[in-house]
Amino acid sequence: MKSSTFLVSILCAVVLTAPICKAQSPSTSASTNAGVDNSVRLDVLAAQWWQWALSIPTTVNPLEDINGANCMVGQRGPVWFLAGAFNGGTVTRSCSVPDQATLFFPVINAINFNTPNVCGQGPASISISDLRALSAGFVSGGSKLSASVDSQPVSPLKHIKSVVFDVALPIDNVFNALCGGPGTVPPNIYSPGVDEGMYVLLKPLKTGRHILHIHAENSSQGFVEDITYDLTVVSTELE
């Protein structure tokens, strides 16, 4: 983490510095994004993904989930979010999702937001352009980025720069451990925040079992993340 701002890279890592990843060229595999509502603003969705992930207390936070028990926490509406692992590593999660839910998740992403007088940042604010520049650093070092469903590659990955947004951190937030322990990062609304990353917007899956696999690396950060979701898609048909 830089002394001036928070930088987190989820699904790819948790670094307190910068991130983003350059778009990959579309592969020849069939796209699994077909059929998704094109009216969805992905730059807004990326901001909402972070607001969801960071607002949840550590004890039940999907980013810290070791087996999928918390994958349903905070989910609502037609889009469901899936998380990576806050500090990277290899994780396998079992999770149930509704058959009408579009799934949205990062393969590699990074957030930067102002934290005046918190965790090493001084009182001065950081400009949005500087925050975006920081968020461009980590992901640009990403490599071996991939996502697949039932062994079929998802393509293309979507390169997204979020809208500017605020972050609401609870008392028991995921940054406390990185900054020195409980209470180190006070509960508050932190703003502005920005994100950039490579994401997947996945159309609703058919009822039954599916294996989602996500992989990302950043050799400059010594980071490797390998996430497997064993998904059970449940019928939610209404009469």
Can you describe what's shown?
There is one protein chain. Helix content is 13%, strand content 35%. It is mainly beta and 239 residues long. The strands form two sheets. Strands 1, 2, 4, 7, 8 and 9 form a six-stranded mixed sheet that branches. A five-stranded mixed sheet has the order 3-11-10-5-6, with helices on one face. A hairpin with a 4-residue loop joins strand 10 (208-218) and strand 11. The chain is globular and about 50 Å long. The protein starts with 5 loop residues before the first strand and ends in a 5-residue tail after the last strand.
The overall average pLDDT, rounded, is 85
What share of the residues lie within helices? 10-25%
| Strand tally | 11
Shape: globular
Distance from first to last alpha carbon: 51 Å
DSSP helix count?
Answer: 3
Question: What can be said about the biggest beta sheet?
Answer: 6 strands, mixed
Low-pLDDT parts are: 9-31
* Radius of gyration, taken over Cα atoms and rounded to an integer in Å: 17 Å
Give the structure's gist in a few sentences.
The chain is mainly β and 239 residues long. It has 3 helices and 11 strands.
What's the layout of helices and strands?
Layout: E1 6-8, H1 42-55, E2 79-81, E3 89-98, E4 102-113, H2 128-140, E5 143-149, E6 152-153, E7 158-161, E8 165-169, H3 176-179, E9 188-202, E10 208-218, E11 223-234
Parallel strand pairs: 2-4, 3-11
Antiparallel strand pairs: 1-4, 4-9, 5-6, 5-10, 7-9, 8-9, 10-11
